[in-house]
Specification:
five-stranded mixed beta sheet, single chain, globular
Length: 228
């Protein structure tokens, strides 16, 4: 019972841990009625290769990782051609998946997020359209079963029926910051403007500062961002 009566800061950290989640895991390993496309060792090696690197480091197209570039890397590394379904399953278990805005909030923030979606979000979407800017939903998921600690930082854009997801594998931990390089790469080599909607996985002090004017951050409501 004592743990429930700790300081507000401890409660907020618990909320953020819930949002970061343990929803990234390893997909490899035999399952009933299935033959795994990658062994556990191969999947760990793939994660290790991607961690801290970008597609261009391996001569692959794209500023950030995508389903296509991961499939190409796996093919080059293991001489193994993975189907789109297999790649999608692997990335989904890692936490690379489109998420509804309501699922990006803990129970304490859900009401605030719903109100924000009804009031603030339409203006953000309208401004992004007027600026001819790309609109991205930014979140993260802890990648379990790997050492050192790592997490998936992902961006979802495009229509809900055909979402485009790009990601990187970054250092993990509750105190890990949102990588500045990730946002800059979303802007691409042409420097196109972007509006990044950032979920409550990051507290205010974890968001990058001194970003170029073409990159605008819109933090979603979060108990981590309320003043004490």
């Amino acid at each position: 019972m004592g743990a429930l009566l700790e300081t507000r800061g401890s409660a907020l950290s618990w909320c953020r841990r819930e949002r970061i989640g343990g929803d990234g895991a390893l997909a490899a390993g035999p399952r009933a009625g299935q033959i795994a496309a990658l062994t556990r060792e191969q999947e760990l090696a793939l994660i290790d290769t991607i961690r801290g690197h970008f597609p261009e480091d391996f001569g692959l197209p794209g500023d950030l990782w995508s389903r296509r570039s991961v499939a190409a890397l796996a093919s080059d590394t293991f001489d193994l051609r993975l189907t789109g379904t297999t790649i999608a399953r692997i990335l989904t278990t890692w936490g690379v998946t489109a998420r509804d805005p309501s699922s990006r909030a803990c129970a304490l923030c859900a009401g605030s997020v719903e109100r924000w979606m009804a009031t603030a979000y339409p203006a953000i979407a309208r401004t992004a359209h007027e600026h001819r800017a790309d609109l991205h939903w930014i979140g993260r998921a802890r990648l379990c079963g790997v050492a050192p600690s790592a997490e998936i930082v992902s961006a979802v854009s495009g229509p809900p029926t055909r979402p485009k997801i790009r990601f990187m594998i970054a250092p993990g931990g509750v105190r890990a910051r949102l990588p500045r390089a990730f946002l800059l790469r979303l802007s691409g080599p042409t420097g196109r403007p972007i509006h990044a909607i950032v979920d409550g996985s990051w507290a205010t002090w974890q968001l990058p500062r001194r970003l170029p004017r073409r990159v605008l951050i819109h933090p979603m409501p979060s108990c981590e961002r309320l003043k004490a």
